[in-house]
């Protein structure tokens, strides 16, 4: 097995220079970095992360905690984060919690014990004590986790208003706001608050129902269909695109009411072009989250502020 000394000899540089390349520390010319990387590739050399941990050195590893990757938005979020981090010479570890606090707690402590350089978390368990005094630099995605952690997200209330204004233009008589979590209703989530504010100027009747994701998909889908059967809704505003897809599939294509979603992943726009939804600026959000995280990793004191980026309305294609 090749050693760091073998790499230095192959590249014609000192062991200290190889170490600086591995740890991305100090100024090094592009030519030197290329020589060292070529030597590492030729010798199939892998830095010993465990040994670097023991010496308190950076591992160039970032942990990403998500509720799941079944949701196309979270899958696209992770892919974008992973690609951006890889370009910055970081490797990525993915953990999914399925909304379970104990699972999330174990992952947070496992990451801290293995000394990841930082964590990006987009979960639904802000009450975990681990977030009150994070062991490693952490950035929250679309969730306020604590006053110690910066949060990056979209302007959800403005997005809700965009959807509400669009629906109001169609003058519906009976609307349903369909949420993916009970927490969205008490207190009202910014998305729903925005929808309600826009619909308040219309004479429409507006119902609100939550059908949480923390149950088997067939059960959840059946509960949604039962709710839709209770009234003749002519507009259904969903707080996420997956719920909107279930609503689409609950009606014959020639009897679709006005259906809207929220998130606007590339997958949804490609395979469900009829869905009107709000597009979150995912690439910009990920770039900002990584910039904030790397600044904290490098010793900066990034204030724990909330950063909200503007969203856009995507009007679905109709035949």
Could you describe the 3D structure shown?
Keywords: DNA-binding, Repressor, Transcription, Transcription regulation. InterPro entries: HTH_LacI, Lambda_DNA-bd_dom_sf, Peripla_BP_I, SBP_2_dom. This is Sucrose operon repressor. Residues 2-56 form the HTH lacI-type domain. Helix 1 (4-11) crosses helix 3 (30-43) and helix 7 packs parallel to helix 8. By secondary structure, the chain is of the alpha/beta class. The strands form three sheets. Strands 2-1-3-4-5-11 form a six-stranded parallel beta sheet, sandwiched between helices. The chain is 42% helix and 17% strand. The chain has helices at residues 4-11, 15-23, 30-43, 49-54, 72-87, 101-113, 156-168, 190-199, 217-230, 241-249, 266-271, 282-297; strands spanning 61-66, 91-96, 118-121, 138-141, 151-154, 174-179, 205-210, 235-238, 258-260, 277-279, 306-309, 312-314. It folds into three domains: 4-47, 434 Repressor (Amino-terminal Domain), CATH 1.10.260.40; 61-153 and 282-308, Response regulator (Rossmann fold); 156-279, Response regulator (Rossmann fold, 3-Layer(aba) Sandwich). The chain has twelve helices and twelve strands. The protein starts with a helix and ends in a 5-residue tail after the last strand. The model has no long low-confidence stretch (mean pLDDT 89).
